[in-house]
Specification:
The complex is a heterodimer of chains A (581) and B (220). Chain A has 581 residues and is an all-alpha fold. Helices cover 62% and strands 0% of the residues of chain A. In chain B, strands 3-2-1-5-8 form a 5-stranded mixed beta sheet, with no helix packed on it. Chain B has a 5-stranded mixed beta sheet with strand order 4-10-9-6-7. Classes of the chains: A mainly alpha (581), B alpha+beta (220).
C-alpha cells in the first residue's frame, strides 16, 4: 500500500472501528453480506443435497429402510422406510431449497453483492442498509423453509411448482401447516430478493467509476445487472401469486379453485410467468462468471464481447415470452402452444452464440487449466447438453411424450447443476483468495472437479434414458407400472452415482474450511486478472477504494502484442497512449 | 435393452412423433459432438506453455454471423416441422369428426372411464362404465374428454406417446387411433398427491370382433 492510499484509507477510518457485531453480523459492507449469503446458501446446498440422497435411496432401493432412517421418526419413515407422503416432501423441499435458498442466493446474493461494487470501482452498494436487510430477511425466509420440512401434518407435498388445487387444498394433499410455511418462506424470500435487486440495478447505473463505460463492464457485471432487472420484474409476480395461494389456504378465497369460480391454470400462468425468467436468473450470472474466467484462463480477450452482451439481453427479453412451454400439455389452447414453441426455440440462437464465443475465446489461447478454469470449461461442456435437451421439449409434439418424465429432470439438472453449480464452484475457487486473502488448495480442487464431473454425469445422463422410456417424475415407486420395472437396475445405478456425487463434495468442503487457516497469500493478483478488484488488497477494506479508480479500457486486454505481460488491469494505460473503446 | 428406450409405438401418430424426436436427436447430436470434441481439442492443443503468448483476437463479425444464422435456420426448420405435428395431435380442428367419444374422469387415485355402447354416443342408456380399465377397438379414432374431480392429473399413454392434463373445472380433449391390439398401460403424469405413483389403468385395444363381443356382453 502506498503512502497516499494509506493516508486516504485513514480518511475512511470510521469504517475500521466498527464493533464486531456491526462489522461481521449486522454489516452493511457488501463484501461481508456476500460472504454471509455464501455461508447460508452453502448450508442450504448441503441440506438440499442430503434430501436428494433420501429421494435417490427410495428410487434406487424402493421399500428398503433408509440408513439411519429410524432417526426421522415413525411418522415420516415407519421402520426407517420413507413413507410416500414424506417422499413427496423430500422432492418438494429438495427443489425449493436448491432453487430459492442455494443456487439463487449463491449466484445473486453472493456474487452480485461481492463483485458488482468491486468490479465497477464503487465504494459499496448504492443502499448499504437495504442490502443488509436483504440478507437478514433470508433468516426468517430460511426458517420458514426449514420449519415446513418438519411441520405438523407433514412437509409440503405439491412439488416446488406448487400446482393448485393440490397445493391449496389440505384435504387433497394431506398437508396444511407445512404448505403455509412454504408459502411464507417464499414470500419473504421474494422480498429479500427484491431489495437486493433494486440495489444492484441502482449501483450499476450510478456508481460506476470514471471511465467505466457500459461497454467496458466485465460480462459478469453485465449478466448480474440484467439478472437484477429480471428479478425486479419477475419476483413480485411470484410473491403476488403465492400470497393468493396463501389466501386460498387460510382465508378461504378461491383464486385457483374452480368450486368458487377460480382457475387452476391461473396459478400455472402466474407461476411460470415468474418461473421462466427465474430460469434465466439462475443461469445468466453463471454465464457472466464463466465468461470472465474463460477469458482469464485462456489469456485472451473474450471472443465477440458485444455479441455476448447482446446475446445476454436477447435471452433476457425472450425469457418473458416463453413461459407457456411449461404448459403445452396443460389444457392451454393448443394454438397458444404454437406461439410459445416459436419463441422458445428462438432462445437456442443467442445461447448458441454464447457457447461458440466461449469456444472462440479458448481457440488459439494459452490455456491455464487451474481449478476455476476447469470448472468453467466443465460449465460449457455440461450446459451445452442442458441447452440441447431443451430443444426436444421446445418442440411441443415431442414434449407431449417427454413432458413430466425424467427427461425433464435430466434437463433441469444439466442446466442447474452442470450449468449454474459448476459456475458457482468456478467463482468460489476464483474469488476465494479475494474474499479471504488465502488461496484454496489446487490439488484438492482438481480432485473435487474431476470426481464431481464423472459422478455428476453418471448420475444425470442416464436420466435422459429413463425419460425416453417414459419414467414419470415425482413417483414414489416406479414398480407400480409394468413398463417401468425393467428400469430398476438403471435407477439403482443412478442412486449409487448420486451417493458418490455427494461424497465427491467432501474435498471441496474440507478445502473450503481448511484454507481459511492457510497462510495469507502475498500475491495481490494471483490469477493475473484485469478486474479492478485485483488492484486492492485481499480482503479489500470496508469502503473498497480509497480514491475512485480511473478506468482506461475494457476488461479483457489479455496478451496484447504490444505489452510485455499477458494482462493489463483496467486502471493501467494502454501502451499506445490512447484509449480505445 | 429395448426396455431402456421408447415403448413400442401403438398409435397412428406415434411413429411421426418418434421420427421428430430422432431428427432433433441427430441435429443436437452433431452439435454435441462438435462442441465437446472442440473443447477437448482446444484443451489439448492450446494448453498453456511457459513463454508462449495467446493470440490477441477480439472476435470476428463473420464468425458471429455464421454461428447466428446456422442455428437460427435450423431451429426455425425444427419449429416448422414440429408445428405440423403439433397441429395433427392437439389442434381441436384436427380431431377426426367421426371419432368415438370417451369420457374420462380422473380422481385421486383412480381413472373413471365412460365408454359409449353400440350406438357410439355418450349420455345414452347403453353407456359402459369402468374403473381403471378402458376398452377400445383397433384402427378406430377416439376422442377422450378429460375431467378431473379434485386435483390436476395427466392422462399418459406411453405406447401412444399421448399425454394430456385433466384439470378441475374444465374439459380437455385429445384423440388417438390405436394401430395394434394388445394391453397397454395408462399412467398419471402430473403430481396429484400421495398416491400419484399408484394410479395405473389398463388400456385394452381389441380387434373388431373381440370388441363387438365385449360390447355386446355388457348389454346383458
Amino acid at each position: 500500500m502506498t503512502a497516499t492510499t494509506a493516508q486516504a484509507s485513514h480518511g475512511h477510518a470510521h469504517h475500521e472501528e466498527l464493533p464486531f457485531i456491526r462489522k461481521y453480523v449486522f454489516s452493511s459492507d457488501h463484501k461481508i453480506i456476500a460472504i454471509q449469503f455464501m455461508f447460508l446458501s452453502l448450508l442450504f446446498l448441503l441440506l438440499g443435497g442430503l434430501l436428494a440422497m433420501a429421494v435417490r435411496w427410495q428410487l434406487g432401493f424402493p421399500g428398503q429402510p433408509l440408513p439411519f432412517g429410524r432417526l426421522l421418526g415413525e411418522g415420516v419413515a415407519p421402520s426407517g422406510v420413507i413413507a410416500p407422503k414424506f417422499y413427496l416432501g423430500l422432492v418438494t423441499m429438495h427443489a425449493t431449497y436448491m432453487i430459492f435458498f442455494a443456487i439463487m442466493p449463491l449466484l445473486v446474493g453472493t456474487f452480485a453483492n461481492y463483485l458488482i461494487p468491486l468490479k465497477i470501482g464503487a465504494p459499496d452498494m448504492a443502499f448499504p442498509r437495504l442490502n443488509m436487510w436483504s440478507f437478514w430477511l433470508m433468516i426468517p425466509a430460511g426458517t420458514f423453509a426449514l420449519l415446513s420440512l418438519y411441520a405438523e401434518g407433514g412437509s409440503p407435498a405439491a412439488g416446488w411448482t406448487g400446482y393448485a388445487p393440490l397445493s391449496n387444498t389440505p384435504v387433497y394433499s394431506g398437508v396444511s401447516t407445512g404448505q403455509i410455511y412454504w408459502c411464507l418462506g417464499i414470500a419473504v424470500f421474494a422480498l429479500s430478493s427484491l431489495l437486493g435487486s433494486v440495489n444492484y440495478i441502482t449501483t450499476v447505473i450510478n456508481l460506476r467509476a470514471p471511465g467505466m463505460h457500459w461497454f467496458r463492464l466485465p460480462l459478469s457485471v453485465w449478466a448480474l445487472f440484467i439478472t437484477a432487472i429480471l428479478a425486479v420484474l419477475a419476483v413480485p409476480i411470484l410473491a403476488g401469486a403465492i400470497i393468493m395461494l396463501l389466501f386460498d389456504q387460510v382465508l378461504g378465497t378461491h383464486f385457483y379453485l374452480p368450486s368458487g369460480g377460480g382457475q387452476p391454470l391461473l396459478w400455472q400462468h402466474l407461476f411460470w410467468f415468474f418461473g421462466h425468467p427465474e430460469v434465466y436468473i439462475l443461469i445468466l450470472p453463471a454465464m457472466g462468471i464463466v465468461s470472465d474466467i474463460i477469458a482469464n484462463g485462456s489469456r485472451k480477450p473474450i471472443f465477440g464481447y458485444h455479441s455476448m452482451v447482446y446475446a445476454l439481453c436477447t435471452i433476457a427479453f425472450l425469457g418473458w415470452v416463453v413461459w407457456g412451454h411449461h404448459m403445452f400439455q396443460s389444457g392451454m389452447n393448443p394454438t397458444l402452444g404454437t406461439t410459445f414453441m416459436a419463441s422458445t426455440i428462438l432462445i437456442a440462437v443467442p445461447t448458441a452464440i454464447k457457447v461458440f464465443n466461449w469456444m472462440g475465446t479458448m481457440w488459439r489461447g494459452n490455456l491455464q487449466l487451474h481449478v476455476p478454469m476447469l470448472n468453467a470449461i466443465g460449465f460449457v461442456a455440461m450446459f451445452v447438453i442442458g441447452g440441447l435437451s431443451g430443444i426436444f421439449m421446445a418442440s411441443a409434439p415431442v414434449d407431449m411424450y417427454i413432458h413430466d418424465t425424467y427427461f425433464i429432470v435430466a434437463h433441469i439438472h444439466y442446466v442447474l447443476f452442470g450449468g449454474s453449480l459448476f459456475a458457482i464452484f468456478a467463482g468460489i475457487y476464483f474469488w476465494y483468495p479475494k474474499m479471504f486473502g488465502r488461496q484454496m488448495d489446487e490439488t484438492l480442487g482438481k480432485w473435487h472437479f474431476w470426481l464431481t464431473f464423472v459422478t455428476y454425469n453418471a448420475t444425470f445422463f442416464p436420466m435422459h434414458i429413463l425419460g425416453v422410456a417414459g419414467h414419470m417424475r415425482r413417483i414414489y415407486d416406479p414398480n407400480t407400472y409394468e413398463f417401468l420395472r425393467p428400469l430398476q437396475s438403471l435407477n439403482t445405478f443412478i442412486s449409487v452415482s448420486a451417493f458418490l456425487l455427494l461424497g465427491s463434495q467432501l474435498p471441496f468442503m474440507w478445502n473450503f474450511v481448511r484454507s481459511l487457516a492457510r497462510p495469507k497469500m502475498t500475491d495481490i493478483n494471483p490469477w493475473r486478472d484485469n478486474g479492478l478488484e485485483w488492484t486492492l488488497p485481499s480482503p479489500p477494506p470496508h469502503g473498497n477504494y480509497a480514491t475512485p479508480p480511473i478506468v482506461l479500457h475494457g476488461p479483457y486486454e489479455y496478451s496484447r502484442p504490444d505489452t510485455a505481460e499477458d494482462f493489463l488491469p483496467q486502471d493501467q494505460p494502454l501502451p499506445a497512449h490512447q484509449e480505445t473503446r | 435393452m429395448q426396455h431402456w428406450w421408447f415403448p413400442e409405438n401403438a398409435s397412428s401418430y406415434g411413429g411421426q412423433l418418434d421420427a421428430m424426436f430422432y431428427v432433433i436427436l441427430y441435429i443436437t447430436g452433431i452439435v454435441f459432438f462438435v462442441v465437446e470434441i472442440g473443447l477437448l481439442v482446444f484443451v489439448v492443443k492450446y494448453r498453456g506453455r511457459p513463454g508462449r503468448k495467446a493470440a490477441y483476437i477480439e472476435g470476428s463479425t463473420r464468425a458471429e454471423i455464421v454461428w447466428t444464422m446456422i442455428p437460427a435456420i435450423t431451429v426455425v426448420l425444427i419449429a416448422l416441422f414440429s408445428q405440423r405435428l403439433w397441429s395433427l395431435v392437439k389442434s381441436p380442428s384436427q380431431i377426426p369428426a367421426d371419432a368415438t367419444p370417451i369420457a374420462v374422469e380422473a380422481k385421486q387415485f383412480e381413472w373413471h372411464f365412460t365408454m359409449p355402447g353400440p350406438d357410439g354416443r355418450l349420455g345414452t342408456d347403453d353407456d359402459i362404465f369402468r374403473k381403471d380399465t378402458l376398452h377400445v377397438q383397433v384402427d378406430r379414432d377416439y376422442v377422450v374428454e378429460l375431467q378431473a374431480r379434485d386435483v390436476i392429473h395427466s392422462f399418459f399413454v406411453p405406447a401412444f406417446r399421448l399425454k394430456q392434463d385433466a384439470v378441475p373445472g374444465m374439459t380437455t380433449r385429445a384423440w388417438f387411433r390405436a394401430t395394434r391390439t394388445g394391453t397397454f398401460e395408462i399412467a398419471c403424469a402430473e403430481l396429484c398427491g400421495v398416491g400419484h405413483y399408484r394410479m395405473p389403468a389398463q388400456l385394452l385395444v381389441q380387434s373388431p370382433a373381440e370388441f363387438a363381443a365385449w360390447q355386446a356382453a355388457q348389454g346383458q
